[in-house]
Write a structure and sequence with these properties.
three-stranded antiparallel β-sheet, mainly alpha, about 325 residues, about 50% helix
Length: about 325
């Protein structure tokens, strides 16, 4: 029997599926442009992450960038959002300094940014309703209740999204802030994100490698060469993410990348002996944190969370298409 999926994997499946479905709907409704296909004259297409860590917190009046980060409890990509035509970033009219610090710059919505807010605002409720219709109101209600019970044990200042990863693909701790929504009012995506981010932060306090590097790449490598072109399919993440993670592993002498054995085109990656030890430590640490949460949290909240997630995610490697998190578009 296949080993059960780790708790962060279950949470990640749910969070990523919810995000993809919201992103797809935003792409469907909002005029935008990308590198592929004809331009529509709209701003650059961005993900739901930019709603939670930026646009959700902007109103009629400009606010300081530092205040925006405090409200979101997470940093955002101000330069990107300005370049992509969602916001304007300017010094305060009464600020005479030649180069005010970033946190004192005023952030305001553009016309297109206001239009994007109107599309983003109802998406979480819309997608959650779709999940109820696909898998039943009882299954989603159980998932919500289990997630809320776990969130009640976590730091209250966690953001409602996965924070932008920093150097080494490490998770960014929350920015101190206030205005934390009551657990019952949180969007389902936030209820999924907070435990996942909390797990990642706890993992990374004890590990030189990030949870992202361990889960996405270290986990799927072996002492035998694995074709680099196969890694996105095996990991479920983009080739750009693979490239960044491989840079971390190579720098730490945990993996090596060489031309494919036998002279076939392309390259292959394999773990070094040190990498094999890191892989074992990764699995042990993930299990230890889940066990720690099971012991520390009141009642059977982790068991309840597993019981609500596992039927929706499915068994490891079962290939089923009948689960809530198999998003079609």
């Amino acid at each position: 029997m296949a080993e059960r999926l780790p708790l962060p994997t279950l949470l990640s499946h749910g969070f990523v599926a919810f995000t993809i479905e919201c992103d797809n709907e935003f792409e469907h409704q909002f005029p935008h442009r990308t590198t592929k296909g004809p331009a529509t004259g709209g701003p650059w297409l961005v993900s739901m992450a930019m709603w939670f860590n930026c646009m959700r917190h902007l109103g009629e009046e400009p606010i300081a960038a530092g205040e925006l980060e405090r409200r979101a409890r997470a940093p955002t990509n101000l330069a990107g959002m300005q370049r992509w035509q969602y916001i304007d970033v300017e010094p305060a009219p009464d600020d005479a300094r030649p180069k005010p610090p970033r946190r004192d710059m005023l952030v305001s919505r553009t016309r297109r940014g206001r239009q994007a807010q109107q599309v983003w605002a109802p998406l979480c409720d819309m997608v959650e309703q779709r999940w109820r219709e696909r898998s039943g109101a009882r299954a989603v209600a159980s998932l919500r209740a289990a997630l809320a019970a776990v969130v009640a044990h976590l730091e209250p200042g966690l953001p409602d999204c996965m924070a932008i990863l920093g150097y080494g693909l490490r998770s960014t701790p929350p920015t101190p802030g206030n205005g934390v929504a009551a657990d019952a009012a949180l969007p389902l995506s936030a209820l999924l994100a907070r435990p996942l981010l909390s797990f990642a932060l706890e993992f990374e306090r004890e590990s030189a490698l990030s949870l992202a590097v361990g889960s996405d790449v270290l986990r799927i490598l072996d002492e035998q060469p694995v074709l680099m072109r196969d890694l996105p399919r095996l990991s479920g993440v983009s080739k750009e993410s693979i490239s960044m993670a491989m840079g971390v592993l190579e720098k730490g002498k945990l993996a090596v990348v060489k031309h494919n054995p036998g002279g076939t085109p392309g390259k292959a990656a394999r773990l070094t002996h040190r990498g094999q030890q890191a892989q074992i430590a990764y699995h042990q640490r993930v299990r230890a944190i889940e066990d720690r949460w099971q012991s520390a949290f009141r009642g059977d909240v982790i068991a309840m969370l597993r019981a609500s997630l596992e039927p929706l995610v499915g068994e490891p490697g079962d290939g089923s298409t009948e689960h809530l998190f198999c998003v079609e578009w």
